[in-house]
Amino acid sequence: MKKIILTAAALFAFAFTNAQSGAFKLGAHVGLPTGDIKDWYSVNLGADLSYTWNVAEGLDAGITTGYTAYLGKDGVDAAGFIPVAATAQFTLENKMFIGADLGYGIGVNPSGNDGGFLYQPKIGYQMENAGLYVSYKGISVDGGTFSSVNLGVSFKL
């Protein structure tokens, strides 16, 4: 856990030193749980904040965080995670993009949720100040994976 926090702090520091070529993005997503958890959770909701900078033509990379919650069914407690991840997006000529987030989902609730490895491949359409995407999100935890198929939107600030 200590390594994750130090890595995140280093990434944030690097991002702010390159602020001239970067941009903040604020987004939200909604999704349907899949796999191991689909019988116990009804929906995935979340908000995202990222900072990216252009590292090559059409390629943005950076860091992302936020909050994502899987809402429980029939008395099952909601499961919440704070992602701390690297993010990348490659925009194609026709404004379509592919991207991915890789990192760690810090477990917030319920008690005993230690979190796990987070991965989120994305495909979407990038407009001038907004983007729409479809993604598959997985957070590997002890005993299974919290996963969902999501629809999201992000706005450049």
Describe the protein's topology.
Elements: H1 2-17, E1 22-34, E2 41-56, E3 59-72, E4 79-91, E5 96-109, E6 116-126, E7 130-141, E8 144-156
Antiparallel strand pairs: 1-2, 1-8, 2-3, 3-4, 4-5, 5-6, 6-7, 7-8
Identify the overall geometry.
elongated
What is the first-to-last residue Cα distance?
Answer: 30 Å
The beta-strand count equals 8
Oligomer: single chain
Helix content: 10-25%
Q: What does the main sheet amount to?
A: 8 strands, antiparallel, barrel
Radius of gyration: 16 Å
- The tally of helices reads 1
Class inferred from helices and paired strands: mainly beta
Strand order of the largest sheet: 1-2-3-4-5-6-7-8
Mean pLDDT: 90
* Secondary-structure element order, N to C: HEEEEEEEE
Are there runs of 5+ residues with pLDDT below 50, and where? none
Question: How would you characterize this protein structure?
Answer:
This protein has one helix at residues 2-17; strands at 22-34, 41-56, 59-72, 79-91, 96-109, 116-126, 130-141, 144-156. It has 157 residues and is mainly beta. The protein has an eight-stranded antiparallel barrel. A hairpin with a 6-residue loop joins strand 1 and strand 2 (41-56). The mean pLDDT is 90.
